[in-house]
Each structure stands twice: as C-alpha cells, then as structure tokens.
Design goal:
The protein is 83% helix and 0% strand. By secondary structure, the chain is mainly alpha-helical. α2 packs parallel to α6, α9 runs antiparallel to α15 and α12 packs antiparallel against α15.
Length: 407
C-alpha cells in the first residue's frame, strides 16, 4: 500500500482515469448515435424507454452477485476483463450492421450485453479508487474523475453526431472497441494495491450480500441519502432517454441541437466537478451538499417542464440542462467520497454493486411509470412531474436526516 501514501498514487490514478476517459468518449459517441438512430427511426417514447430498461436490467439482476466477486477477486483483473467484454460487444454489433440494416430490437440486445460488462466494471473502478488514493484526497480525486468523465460526455455526443452524419453505424461502433483496448492497456501497466484475494474459498452469496447491506445500513445518514436518491432517480433517470425526443419532437430541432443539449449537460458537470475537486475537501457537511445537489436536480427539471415549444425555449432548456449536470455532481461527488471513506474496503465492492442495483431498480420503475405518462402528457410534462417529486422527496429526507447518527 506504499503507493497510496506517497506522491506515486497520482501517476497511477491519472493513468487509469485517462484511459477510462478515452473509453468513455467512444462509449458516449456510440450511445448517442444508437439512441438517435432509435429516436429518428421510431419517434416513440416507448422505444426509448425500452432501450433504457434493457440497459439497466443487468445491473438490477446481477449487481448483488457481482459485488461478492468484486470483493473476493482482483479488482484490476475484473475491470480489465469487463472493459474488453464491452468492447467485444460493440465489435459484434458492428458486424451485424455490416450484414445489413438490423431491426431496432437488435440495438436492445447490444445494449443489454454491454450492460452485463458494466455490472462488473463500474463498481470495480469505484472500489479501486480508495485503494490508490489517500482518504483526505478522495473528494479531490472524485472531482477529477468526474471532470474527466464530464469531458468525455461533452466530446462524445459531438463526436457521435458528426459520425452519425458521416459514417455508417458499423464504423461508429468500432470507436467503443478501440476505447476499451486503450483503457485496458493503461490499467494493465498500473500497480494497484489489492486486498488479499479469496479465490480458494467458496462464496456464500446471500450471506456476503447481507454483510454488504449491513455495512451500508450502519451508516444511517448515508443509508437514508441512498434511499432518497433511489426514489428521486425513479423520476429523474428516465429523462436521459427522453432528451432526444424533447429536442426532436417538442422543440422540432435536429441531431446537432440534441448534441448541443448533451454538450451543455456535460459542460455543467465538468464545471462543477472542477469546483468540487478544488473546494470539496473543505466541506464540513458533505451529505448536506449532496442534498443540495438533489434539490437542484429537482428545480431544474421542474423549470424544463414549463418551457414553451419555441427556439428560445430550446436555448433556455439547454442552459437548464447545463445547471442540471452541475447539480448532479454536487450530489454525487460528496456522496461517493463519503462512501469510500465510511465503508470498509473489503465490503466496498458489495456496497457499490448494491447501490448500482438500487439505482437500476429505480430506472425500470421510472420507465414503467414515465413511458405511458410521457405518451399522454408529453415528455415536457414528465420533466415537470420529475422536478416536483424530486424537490419534495429531498426536502423531507433532509429534515429527517438531521436527527440520525451512525451505529
């Protein structure tokens, strides 16, 4: 663990997350192109809702089991294997496009297979960070990580829109494969301090999953915030599937306008990630900051639902999306740093996987509710409903949290 307590941790940390950023740029471009392919070809909220559902179901079903393996095996090897698997899925779907125009449901298969790899990849990366980074630097490290991710999300849609206009889908999909190869190569050369592996012991899945849940529940303010965020995300997460329709159907704008919205959202994330990375470690009450971020998500969503279907309404929508992205990082960066400080390292894989599964449960619940509702009241109506619900949930949970203490 010497690397963690010396200046050497920065070199390893930046190598890993530079690779992850490159991979995310490719993945973000491919995701934008695929969603725009579905949106422009079907013009249906139900189809986009189904695409989001397929992408989240693997985490919901497999996440708790994946967390047990993440806490037992080498997190570095799991992260590399999962990244390469996702790159292979993109390569396989590229070959399908080479054979001709696939049916729209084929995109659901590709998204679902890729999501299986992400079940192992994301919590492995989250659990690797506190093994590399000293505790007093976790807020800064998470800010840097989110800054790099935001940059990837900023470049990805622009790249995706440009490639969608100029290249066939099979060529676009290969950028995801290339990104996975680069990220895996950079992680391979970094020495990551690992917990002692337990490959020789048979896993007791349900007992170990229960232990991960108990580790989180002992942190009562964190547990309440997790439940609050899960409830809020049931309303908020479906919005990610509806941004293209808000642009194309409500504002009657183009793919380039849709990429500008994504650019604004990522730009807000990037700006506030830099801010959180520079001042976050000085925050005395990081969980209160997380609640403030959730409240900001609610307010910006609510205002989006009140905009008129005009071009000036679109430009206000773009600004609100930028603020929304920033509020997301005000919530997530202090929350993740507090988790990494508070949960024992040997339980972090299970806890991060459990939280991922809770968020994945929120997504299908939200899509089941929002799909028919958006068909009836419009996607702009769901933005308004989301904002009102998130504001109410956040205020109630924040008031309750003030009287809670850890076990």
């Amino acid at each position: 663990m010497e690397q963690k307590t010396s200046a050497g941790w920065k070199r390893g940390f930046y190598n890993i997350f530079a690779g992850q950023t490159v991979s995310l740029i490719g993945s973000s471009a491919v995701q934008f192109a695929l969603i725009w392919w579905l949106a422009s070809g079907t013009d249906s909220p139900i189809m986009l809702a189904l695409s989001g559902l397929v992408a989240f179901l693997p985490q919901l079903l497999l996440g708790p089991f994946a967390g047990v393996w993440i806490d037992r095996l080498s997190r570095k090897k799991l992260a590399i294997t999962a990244d390469l698997f996702m790159g292979f899925c993109a390569l396989a779907f590229a070959l399908v496009f080479l054979l001709g125009q696939p049916p729209y449901w084929a995109a659901f298969l590709a998204m679902g297979a890729r999501a299986v790899g992400n079940v192992f990849h994301t919590p492995s990366i989250q659990a690797i960070t506190p093994l590399l980074v000293p505790q007093e630097e976790l807020m800064r490290a998470n800010g840097v990580n989110q800054f790099l991710q935001s940059g990837a999300f900023m470049l990805g849609p622009v790249l995706g829109a440009a490639m969608f206009a100029a290249l066939p889908m099979w060529a676009i999909l290969l950028t995801d494969t290339l990104g996975a190869l680069i990220a895996s190569s950079l992680m391979l050369i970094v020495a990551i301090p690992e917990l002692p592996p337990r490959e020789g012991q048979a896993p007791h899945f349900f007992g170990e999953m229960k232990g991960g849940l108990a580790a989180l529940m002992r942190q009562k303010p964190l547990w309440l915030l997790t439940l609050c965020a899960t409830a809020c995300m049931a309303f908020f997460l479906p919005l990610s599937s509806y941004y293209p329709l808000m642009t194309s159907s409500y504002f009657r704008a183009s793919a380039w306008h849709a990429s500008i919205v994504e650019l604004a959202y990522a730009g807000g994330m990037m700006l506030f990630a830099a801010l959180m990375g520079s001042v976050g470690d000085k925050t005395k009450n990081p969980l209160a900051l997380s609640y403030l971020g959730l409240l900001g998500l609610g307010l910006t969503s609510l205002f989006c639902g009140l905009l008129p279907a005009t071009m000036w309404g679109f430009w206000v929508f773009m600004v609100l999306c930028g603020l929304m992205g920033g509020c997301g990082n005000i919530y997530s960066i202090p929350y993740m740093a507090t988790l990494q400080r508070s949960i024992p390292p040997e339980a972090q894989g299970r806890v991060f996987s459990l939280i991922g599964s809770l968020m994945s449960l929120a997504m299908p619940v939200g899509l089941i509710l929002s799909g028919p509702a958006a068909e009836r009241i419009g996607v702009y109506g769901w933005f308004f409903v989301t904002g009102a619900a998130v504001c109410l949930l956040t205020l109630v949970c924040f008031l309750v949290s003030r009287g809670l203490k850890n076990d």
